[in-house]
Give the backbone structure.
Amino acid sequence: MVNPSNIVTLHGNPLTLSGNLIQNGDRLPNAELINNDLKAVRLSDYRGKVVIISSVPSLDTPVCDMQTRRFNNEAASLSDAVVILTLSMDLPFAQKRWCGAAGVERVITLSDHRTAAFGQAAGLLINDLRLLARAVLVVDREGVVRHSQLVQEVSEEPDYDAVLGALKTLI
C-alpha cells in the first residue's frame, strides 16, 4: 500500500514520491549538488546560515519561474545570515541561462540531476518523472528543518507567507 504522504498530483493526476518525506525536526540531508559552474556543493556548506530551500520541478515552467522570482525578490530584504537555494533537476547550464534571462541574482540555483541525492534523501523525487516535487524547507543554522511544506498539487505555488513567517522565527 502506498503512503498517502508520498503522493502529489500534477493537474490532478497522482504521482508517487520516493523515500520518506522530510519533516520538521529532521536534519537536512547532506546531499551533493552541482552549481552553475559545474562544481560540487554540499548542503552542509551552508551550515551557520538560515537556509530556505525551494525545490521545483523545472525553472522552465511558469510556476517554478514565479516561485524562484518571488524568492529572489524576498531575498533583497533579508540579511546575509539567510541564503535561498532553488534546487531542481535542470542541468546547471539551463539554470545559469534561466537566472541570466530572469535577472535572478540573489537565489542560488543548484542541480540534483547527477544522482538525485537530495530528492531521494528528502523524499521529494517524483519517481515516474525524475523531477523534484514542489516543496519549501526552512532550515536553521544547525541544519535542522524547522518548516517543511510539500505542495500537494505540483502546478500550484507554495504558501509564501508561511515560509516567511517560519523564517522570521529563526533570524
About this structure: The longest strand covers residues 82-88. The chain has one domain: 21-168. Helices lie at 62-75, 92-102, 117-122, 160-168.
